[in-house]
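Researcher: Next entry in the queue.
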Amino acid sequence: MAEQKTWSVAEPQKLTFEEPVTELRVRVVGGTVNVVADEGPARLEVAAVDGPPLYVVQEGGTLTVSYEDLPWNGSQGFKEWLEGKPWKSWTRTGLGRKSWERSATVTLTVPAATRVQLAAVGAAAVVSGIAAATDVHGVSGDVTLVGLSGKVSANTVSGGVEAQSVTGELGFHSVSGGLTVVDGAGGSVRADSVSGDMLIDLALDPAAPRPVDISLNSVSGQVAIRLPHPADARVEANTATGGVSNAFEDLLVSGHFAAKRIAGTLGAGTGTLRATTVSGSIALLRRPAAEAPSDEGPAAPLVLDKKVL
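Model: Structure for this entry, 309 residues:
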């Protein structure tokens, strides 16, 4: 049985873990969490702690950063833990503050092959350079994902998620949080939100083409998707009462007074693009044909223009 090592971190401190780390588990409340891929042993830098100390455990290849009143027992998943809203049952401490009134600013550096599981209540999170699977669950803090190549699952209540240059399969679920995909190189996005907006800007590598696989569902959120040109996908986009905007002449727009639909085939129709909203609007935009960076620069970033939608 692997030896368990524990640390209690109540003030700014740096720790280096000589034992190899293959899985990282983080549960924090308030503050900021940065997870960065790098070579060498895993490291933890705590820049600030307000409230109870962080509880750090290393057992075998698993490194856990949490609090003692946020147990990680292995039998309870992120989703179940968050749905239970444990912070609502935390009581007031002898220091006059509620026990959930806490924050920490931490940076974790781990090998790129480390699997990352992160749960944050009211904390902002950044995960960069990870090649293994990444699971992020948040309540109200925003999440930024940069350069991830493994499978990504992001779930929030009201926090937004921005994914930059993510090449792995991306799954997103939220109540009111929005999703922004910048320079999406993976082509696989499955997302649903009740009221959050979704902006998907794909920049696929022409040297390594892969079929797009996009499925977006929203009740009242706006949806904007920018595809490379020429595009290659079967398209079906529907909105019950929202407006539509279409930049592809090969697609047919039908419906005028109520439900509207954009459908058709782009290129050979190898990939799939489906988008559905009830009252939100849908825009299908076309990324300019491969620019010469030295002449015109990269394509302008996609911005949600609600005047158009």
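Model: Helices lie at 78-83.
Researcher: Noted, moving on.
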